[in-house]
Design a protein that fits this description.
Number of strands: 5
Radius of gyration: 22 Å
Largest sheet: 3 strands, antiparallel
Number of helices: 4
Distance between the termini: 58 Å
Order of helices and strands: HEEEEEHHH
Helix content: 10-25%
Shape: elongated
Strand content: 5-15%
Length: about 160
């Protein structure tokens, strides 16, 4: 069994999940339990990863050297095999903080007691905060996580 350090993934925050990647069996384990599920559907293998976020542990504050000499020899020798496994599970890792996937749900209807729309002024923000809010909203729009609304109930 190969134990893959989190440094290889370039995602040190994964250490909070206490994951072990078993390259020889194509398994990802958390605290000894297999968390990647394999489903066979129409002769296709589908993989999914189920990580228990309740086991959050704050990683110790330490500097990790990016030097290749700091990697265990077994990792250096099996780099191609590791890249192949990581590319196989590519969809499990996000590319940036806006790469969270999408949820498709039917439009919902909210029944109100009155047809009167309520107009509220937007919260006051400083020019710096306003710029940050607009930037984040634009990124969320581009990522498809939100959409523009022209609701009479929105603060404008």
């Amino acid at each position: 069994m190969y134990v893959v350090p989190y440094l290889i993934l370039e995602l040190p925050e994964l250490s909070k999940f206490k994951l072990t990647i078993d390259c020889s069996h194509l398994q990802i384990k958390q605290n000894g339990n297999i968390v990647n599920k394999i489903n066979k559907y129409k002769n296709e293998l589908k993989y999914s990863l189920h990580i228990n976020e309740e086991t959050y542990v704050t990683p110790p504050h330490s500097q990790i050297s990016e030097d290749q000499n700091a990697l265990p020899q077994i990792v250096i020798e099996n780099r191609c095999e590791l890249r192949e496994i990581f590319s196989h599970y590519d969809s499990l890792f996000f590319k940036d903080k806006y790469d969270v996937g999408q949820l498709r749900v039917e439009p919902q209807r909210i029944i109100l007691k009155s047809d009167l729309s309520v107009h509220l002024r937007p919260y006051r923000t400083s020019p710096i905060q306003e710029k940050e809010i607009k930037g984040q909203v634009e990124k969320l729009l581009q990522a498809g996580l939100i959409k523009e609304s022209n609701s009479p109930y929105s603060a404008q």
